[in-house]
Inverse folding.
């Protein structure tokens, strides 16, 4: 058989005080892949990671965890082919940087000379100067340096799977951006499978090969960053990853795969649907701000929907602006206004202006209930 | 205005606390028997101490009792603290309260209850009974000190060790113990001091043949008016001060480790 | 060999109850045997007939317990409680300012703390003797006063209730300063700044912000003064002589010269009960107070 997945979770569940913290979670991670678990606090992502690490176990009939083809349920962390980077780094304060990095090597009874070599290589791997940092006390390090040491400590043991629990959460924004790319590079260079947990969806999208979105203990959707972003399956995923405007309504009729949907306030729009959708069904779609545009009141072009509204405010975001438009039924939607070159006139919109919000039929993503 | 009042009250407090001790130490070097005159610096009273055989025997007894009670109470206390520190539950909270209860028991009651125990069991009072008594009242203190240190420790450190290939026992040995050590030492120090200074409980559990330093001092204070008592007391004060200074320096060095 | 150890480690982890029990058992058994059982035996002794040479006879009697309510002994108890409360109040009066001064200073903080901790670690007996050294008829104060001619006869300071009070207060002030200091230290200075911005002057800031938030420390400190004061007999023995008899002295007496173990046990138990009641009352008060003040 070709490479077994590095990690498999098969309907893994765990309860906490009677409530399911993780509910029948299934996922596969291929060898060498960078896989992220994203979700808000309380979504169960950390609990899942702890089960993968072996600190907690699934319920007795709560699924199996396999690593490299072998069932690891019941095995302690030191019996699993994993390494881990903790959110607070968990560096041993009574040991130096070298002492920390060497810890696992000493456990394996690696000879002293080789330990020294591998520690130095580990420091190089995370771009810390070996001469300067070798004998430093961990209490004298900055946040970014501690994070690198924590990484080196795990990587030096060449684990099959590296688990990362919100590793960038405590860093400054600038450092965070830098580290994202470094982590990504390490994953590519070393070929180690990375499983990362984060609440920052942008982080997950930048670094990962695939992302799993979690909420309330369940997996909402798994896919590549592009897939998840372009084709969110639920309202939760649409709103958690990036921004989304959600439109709801009832199907009046379907013709040629295109449904005409009427909102409670009477406005209509169209969207391509699958064969299972018929008249009378309730439907929800997500349309991202950048898939919409503002026009000044011209009626519909072919193939697009248009809803009237007026601009409530314009938020400047740097790369773009978001116009917050209030629709007749009182809801707000966001429309992205791109700034191209400094000098070109794209039409400057004003607050209070009456506008039409437009998007192409096929750009709306139909969401599951 | 309140600032000044606070300062005055604080000053009164400090004076009441420290002046007696300071004056005592100073006058222990006074060659004169009468307090009002200063007849010159002397170590005479200290020399006289050395000739008091009963003092030296009592000192040795105090040390033996102190060390033994410290070892016993610190050992038992550390084990208990490890259990209490690991898990927080209602049951553990209740157990913790029960284990710490002896602290609020008046020493008279503690001493007497032990006297009653030994009498009812037909055990003769002597060195062993004193050691047992001391270990008993030191135990809650050692538990509290080690527990405090344990609770201040980062719990994820043991988890990290587990991911680096160490099993639970190794993680305990290589991570928890080194970080716990300052707490254990502090507990031992506290236990030793409490034991060395104890009077009341020792009074009831010592029996005729056993004498600790506090018991001898008590006798001297009640009877003699000789300045040797000053010298002995001053020695204890100076000794305590030195011990304290050394401890502060040592904990200061390890303050960064949590 | 290592695999075996890993197995044991994993097994212990899997059964946290067994691990906890094994760790708690030694201390638990020790305290059961040398703390709980002695108290129980002592309680039964209160109901036994007295043996002339000390100890008890088998059998039961309530004669000793009945004596507890005699006015003489109630007076002793009352006196002890009053004195202890007074000592606690005076200690607070002095300890809180000391704690404030320490927490407000930056440069001298460790030194000032050291000055409080030093008496804390010095033998109580030695500290009591230091007081005797100063205040007895032939003590330093009297000798100096007579030498400079202020008085011609020694001032009676030793063997008075005042001396006992002084001894109790100075003896236990360090016990009160430390918890209050700990409470003050944890106080977020931002709270005081907020209060200042909202218009509260210094005195009001103390009453409305500092005091309520340090109340737990004050309660702990008060307990640490009240309980030992109530049970003390060294202080009243050495500084009060036969003139000031507190319950601690009374108890000690029963087990030495008076040789009345049952009565002594009864008294001892009474003392324990009073202490426990005092503690419960104070803890109830903080709990209620804390509930009311949680924002």
């Amino acid at each position: 058989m070709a490479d077994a997945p590095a990690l498999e979770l098969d309907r893994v569940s765990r309860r906490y005080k009677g409530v399911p913290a993780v509910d029948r979670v299934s996922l596969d991670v291929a060898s060498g892949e960078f896989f992220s678990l994203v979700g808000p606090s309380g979504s169960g992502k950390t609990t899942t990671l702890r089960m993968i690490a072996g600190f907690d176990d699934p319920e007795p009939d709560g699924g199996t965890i396999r690593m490299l083809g072998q069932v690891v349920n019941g095995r302690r962390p030191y019996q699993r082919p994993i390494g881990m980077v903790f959110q607070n780094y968990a560096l041993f304060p009574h040991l130096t940087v070298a002492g920390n990095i060497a810890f696992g090597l000493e456990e394996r009874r690696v000879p002293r000379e080789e330990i020294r070599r591998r520690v130095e290589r580990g420091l190089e791997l995370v771009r810390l100067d070996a001469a300067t940092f070798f004998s430093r006390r961990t209490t004298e390090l900055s946040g970014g340096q501690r994070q690198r040491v924590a990484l080196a400590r795990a990587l030096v043991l060449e684990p099959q799977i590296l688990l990362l629990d919100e590793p960038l959460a405590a860093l400054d924004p600038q450092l965070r951006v830098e580290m994202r790319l470094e982590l990504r590079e390490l994953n590519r260079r070393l070929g180690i499978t990375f499983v990362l947990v984060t609440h920052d969806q942008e982080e997950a999208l930048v670094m990962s090969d695939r992302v799993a979105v979690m909420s309330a203990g369940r997996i909402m959707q798994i896919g590549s960053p592009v897939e998840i972003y372009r084709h969110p399956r639920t309202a939760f995923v649409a709103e958690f990853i990036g921004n989304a405007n959600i439109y709801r309504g009832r199907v009046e009729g379907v013709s040629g795969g295109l449904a005409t949907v009427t909102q409670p306030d009477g406005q209509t729009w169209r969207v391509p649907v699958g064969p299972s959708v018929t008249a009378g069904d309730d439907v929800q779609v997500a349309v991202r701000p950048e898939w919409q545009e503002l026009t000044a009141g011209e009626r519909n072009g072919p193939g697009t929907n248009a809803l009237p509204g007026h601009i409530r405010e314009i938020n400047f975001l740097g790369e773009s602006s978001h116009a917050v438009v209030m629709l007749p039924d009182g809801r707000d939607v966001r429309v992205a206004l791109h700034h191209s070159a400094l000098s070109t006139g794209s039409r400057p919109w004003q607050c209070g202006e009456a506008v039409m919000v437009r998007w192409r039929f096929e750009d709306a993503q139909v969401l599951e209930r | 205005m309140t600032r000044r009042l606070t300062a005055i009250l604080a000053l009164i407090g400090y004076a009441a606390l420290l002046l007696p001790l300071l004056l005592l130490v100073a006058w222990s070097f006074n060659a004169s028997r009468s307090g009002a005159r200063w007849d010159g610096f002397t170590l005479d009273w200290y020399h006289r101490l050395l000739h008091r055989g009963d003092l030296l025997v009592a000192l040795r007894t105090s040390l033996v009792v102190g060390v033994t009670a410290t070892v016993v109470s610190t050992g038992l206390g550390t084990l208990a603290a490890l259990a209490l520190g690991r898990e927080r539950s209602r049951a553990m909270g209740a157990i913790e309260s029960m284990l710490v209860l002896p602290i609020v028991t008046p020493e008279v009651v503690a001493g007497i209850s032990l006297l009653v125990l030994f009498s009812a069991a037909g055990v003769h009072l002597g060195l062993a009974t004193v050691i047992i008594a001391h270990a008993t009242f030191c135990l809650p203190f050692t538990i509290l000190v080690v527990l405090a240190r344990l609770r201040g420790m980062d719990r994820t450190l043991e988890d990290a060790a587990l991911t680096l290939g160490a099993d639970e026992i190794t993680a305990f040995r290589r991570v928890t113990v080194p970080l716990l050590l300052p707490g254990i030492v502090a507990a031992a120090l506290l236990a030793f001091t409490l034991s060395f200074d104890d009077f009341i409980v020792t009074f009831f559990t010592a029996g005729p043949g056993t004498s600790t330093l506090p018991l001898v001092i008590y006798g001297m204070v009640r009877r003699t008016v000789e300045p040797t008592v000053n010298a002995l007391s001053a020695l204890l004060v100076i000794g305590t001060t030195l011990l304290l200074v050394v401890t502060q320096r040592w904990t200061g060095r390890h303050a960064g480790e949590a | 060999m290592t695999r075996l150890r890993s197995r044991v480690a994993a097994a212990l982890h899997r059964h946290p109850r067994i691990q906890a029990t094994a760790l708690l058992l030694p201390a638990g058994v020790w305290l059961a045997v040398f703390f709980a059982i002695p108290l129980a035996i002592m309680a039964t002794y209160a109901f036994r007939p007295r043996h002339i040479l000390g100890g008890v006879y088998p059998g039961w009697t309530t004669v000793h317990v009945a004596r507890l309510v005699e006015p003489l002994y109630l007076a002793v108890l009352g006196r002890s409680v009053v004195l202890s409360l007074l000592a606690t109040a005076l200690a607070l009066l002095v300890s809180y300012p000391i704690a404030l001064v320490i927490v407000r200073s930056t440069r001298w903080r460790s030194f000032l703390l050291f000055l409080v901790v030093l008496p804390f670690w010095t033998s109580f007996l030695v500290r009591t003797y230091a007081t005797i050294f100063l205040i007895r008829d032939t003590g330093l104060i009297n000798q100096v006063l007579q030498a400079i001619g202020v008085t011609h006869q020694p001032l009676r300071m030793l063997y008075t209730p005042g001396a006992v009070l002084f001894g109790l207060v100075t003896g236990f002030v360090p016990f009160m300063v430390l918890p209050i200091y700990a409470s003050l230290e944890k106080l977020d200075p931002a709270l005081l700044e907020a209060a200042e911005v909202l218009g509260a002057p210094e005195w009001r800031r103390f009453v409305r912000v500092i005091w309520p938030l340090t109340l737990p420390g004050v309660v702990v400190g008060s307990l640490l003064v009240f309980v030992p004061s109530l049970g003390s007999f060294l202080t009243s023995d050495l500084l009060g002589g036969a003139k000031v008899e507190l319950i601690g002295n009374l108890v000690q007496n029963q087990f030495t010269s008076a040789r009345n173990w049952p009565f002594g046990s009864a008294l001892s138990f009474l003392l324990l009960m009073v202490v426990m009641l005092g503690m419960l009352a104070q803890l109830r008060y903080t709990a209620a107070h804390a509930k009311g003040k949680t924002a």
In short: Residues 173-190 of chain A form the longest helix (18 residues). Residues 243-367 of chain A form a domain with the OB fold (Dihydrolipoamide Acetyltransferase, E2P) fold (CATH 2.40.50.140).
